[in-house]
Write a structure and sequence with these properties.
- With about 140 residues, this protein is an alpha+beta fold.
- About 15% of the residues lie in helices and about 35% in strands.
- Strand 3 and strand 4 form a beta hairpin.
Protein backbone atom coordinates (compact mmCIF):
# COMPACT_ATOMS: atom_id res chain seq x y z
CA UNK A 1 0.00 0.00 0.00
CA UNK A 2 1.42 3.40 -1.01
CA UNK A 3 1.09 6.57 0.99
CA UNK A 4 -1.03 9.35 -0.54
CA UNK A 5 0.91 11.97 -2.44
CA UNK A 6 1.75 15.09 -0.48
CA UNK A 7 -0.20 18.24 -1.16
CA UNK A 8 1.41 20.51 -3.73
CA UNK A 9 2.12 24.00 -2.39
CA UNK A 10 2.24 26.70 -5.06
CA UNK A 11 3.17 30.38 -4.81
CA UNK A 12 3.15 32.20 -1.50
CA UNK A 13 2.12 30.49 1.74
CA UNK A 14 -1.55 30.87 2.67
CA UNK A 15 -2.10 33.54 5.33
CA UNK A 16 -5.78 33.24 6.23
CA UNK A 17 -6.94 30.58 8.67
CA UNK A 18 -10.30 29.72 7.09
CA UNK A 19 -11.66 29.55 3.55
CA UNK A 20 -14.83 31.47 2.70
CA UNK A 21 -17.40 29.40 0.76
CA UNK A 22 -17.28 30.34 -2.94
CA UNK A 23 -21.08 30.63 -2.93
CA UNK A 24 -20.92 33.20 -0.11
CA UNK A 25 -18.40 35.31 -2.05
CA UNK A 26 -20.46 35.24 -5.24
CA UNK A 27 -23.71 35.98 -3.34
CA UNK A 28 -22.25 39.20 -1.87
CA UNK A 29 -19.21 40.00 -4.04
CA UNK A 30 -19.15 43.70 -3.09
CA UNK A 31 -18.26 42.62 0.47
CA UNK A 32 -15.08 40.94 -0.79
CA UNK A 33 -13.85 42.89 -3.86
CA UNK A 34 -10.32 44.16 -3.31
CA UNK A 35 -9.83 41.99 -0.23
CA UNK A 36 -7.71 38.89 0.22
CA UNK A 37 -9.91 35.80 0.35
CA UNK A 38 -9.26 32.10 0.69
CA UNK A 39 -11.44 29.57 -1.12
CA UNK A 40 -11.55 25.79 -1.25
CA UNK A 41 -13.10 23.61 -3.90
CA UNK A 42 -12.72 20.93 -6.51
CA UNK A 43 -10.54 21.84 -9.49
CA UNK A 44 -12.70 21.48 -12.62
CA UNK A 45 -10.48 23.15 -15.21
CA UNK A 46 -6.89 24.32 -15.58
CA UNK A 47 -5.48 26.55 -18.32
CA UNK A 48 -4.16 24.06 -20.86
CA UNK A 49 -1.69 26.55 -22.35
CA UNK A 50 0.29 28.06 -19.47
CA UNK A 51 -1.34 26.78 -16.26
CA UNK A 52 -2.13 30.41 -15.39
CA UNK A 53 -5.61 29.76 -14.00
CA UNK A 54 -7.75 27.09 -12.44
CA UNK A 55 -11.48 26.91 -11.86
CA UNK A 56 -12.71 25.83 -8.42
CA UNK A 57 -16.21 24.58 -7.65
CA UNK A 58 -17.68 24.75 -4.16
CA UNK A 59 -18.81 21.19 -3.31
CA UNK A 60 -21.83 22.50 -1.37
CA UNK A 61 -23.28 25.26 -3.59
CA UNK A 62 -21.71 24.25 -6.94
CA UNK A 63 -20.62 27.91 -7.29
CA UNK A 64 -17.57 28.32 -9.51
CA UNK A 65 -14.75 30.84 -9.34
CA UNK A 66 -11.54 31.20 -11.30
CA UNK A 67 -8.17 31.71 -9.66
CA UNK A 68 -5.89 33.56 -12.10
CA UNK A 69 -2.21 34.36 -11.79
CA UNK A 70 0.18 36.30 -13.96
CA UNK A 71 1.82 33.93 -16.44
CA UNK A 72 4.78 32.26 -14.78
CA UNK A 73 4.02 33.38 -11.20
CA UNK A 74 2.43 30.00 -10.49
CA UNK A 75 1.83 27.14 -12.90
CA UNK A 76 -1.23 25.13 -11.94
CA UNK A 77 -0.57 21.54 -13.06
CA UNK A 78 -3.05 20.04 -15.52
CA UNK A 79 -3.13 16.99 -13.23
CA UNK A 80 -4.90 19.16 -10.62
CA UNK A 81 -8.28 18.56 -12.28
CA UNK A 82 -10.48 16.52 -9.97
CA UNK A 83 -8.43 17.33 -6.86
CA UNK A 84 -9.39 19.56 -3.95
CA UNK A 85 -7.50 22.84 -3.79
CA UNK A 86 -7.32 25.79 -1.42
CA UNK A 87 -6.33 29.09 -3.01
CA UNK A 88 -5.78 32.57 -1.70
CA UNK A 89 -5.65 35.96 -3.37
CA UNK A 90 -7.45 39.23 -3.97
CA UNK A 91 -11.02 39.16 -5.33
CA UNK A 92 -11.20 41.24 -8.50
CA UNK A 93 -14.21 42.57 -10.40
CA UNK A 94 -14.17 42.94 -14.19
CA UNK A 95 -17.01 44.57 -16.13
CA UNK A 96 -16.85 43.42 -19.74
CA UNK A 97 -18.59 44.82 -22.81
CA UNK A 98 -20.13 42.26 -25.17
CA UNK A 99 -17.06 42.54 -27.42
CA UNK A 100 -14.71 41.93 -24.48
CA UNK A 101 -16.87 39.01 -23.30
CA UNK A 102 -16.73 37.47 -26.80
CA UNK A 103 -12.94 37.89 -26.96
CA UNK A 104 -12.51 36.34 -23.50
CA UNK A 105 -14.80 33.39 -24.28
CA UNK A 106 -13.10 32.82 -27.66
CA UNK A 107 -9.65 32.85 -26.05
CA UNK A 108 -10.79 30.45 -23.33
CA UNK A 109 -12.33 28.08 -25.89
CA UNK A 110 -9.06 28.08 -27.87
CA UNK A 111 -7.07 27.35 -24.70
CA UNK A 112 -9.33 24.48 -23.73
CA UNK A 113 -9.74 23.09 -27.27
CA UNK A 114 -13.51 23.72 -27.35
CA UNK A 115 -15.71 25.06 -30.13
CA UNK A 116 -16.98 28.61 -29.69
CA UNK A 117 -19.97 30.42 -31.17
CA UNK A 118 -19.90 34.22 -30.70
CA UNK A 119 -23.73 34.22 -30.79
CA UNK A 120 -23.64 32.39 -27.45
CA UNK A 121 -22.53 35.66 -25.82
CA UNK A 122 -25.66 37.79 -25.51
CA UNK A 123 -24.20 40.91 -23.91
CA UNK A 124 -21.70 42.37 -21.50
CA UNK A 125 -21.05 40.68 -18.20
CA UNK A 126 -19.43 41.16 -14.83
CA UNK A 127 -16.84 38.61 -13.81
CA UNK A 128 -15.36 37.99 -10.39
CA UNK A 129 -12.10 36.11 -10.10
CA UNK A 130 -9.32 35.75 -7.60
CA UNK A 131 -5.91 37.20 -8.41
CA UNK A 132 -4.05 34.24 -6.97
CA UNK A 133 -1.12 34.57 -4.59
CA UNK A 134 -0.82 31.00 -3.33
CA UNK A 135 -2.52 27.62 -3.42
CA UNK A 136 -2.38 24.11 -2.06
CA UNK A 137 -3.57 21.39 -4.43
CA UNK A 138 -4.48 17.87 -3.43
CA UNK A 139 -4.91 18.14 0.32
Amino acid sequence: MTAPAAALKLGKPLTLSQPVPIGAILAEPAEFVGKTVQVKGKVTEVCQMAGCWMALVDPVSNALIRVKVNDGDIVFPKESIGKIATAEGKLMKFELTREQAIARAKHEAEEQGRKFDPKSVKGGTTIYQIQGAGAIVGQ
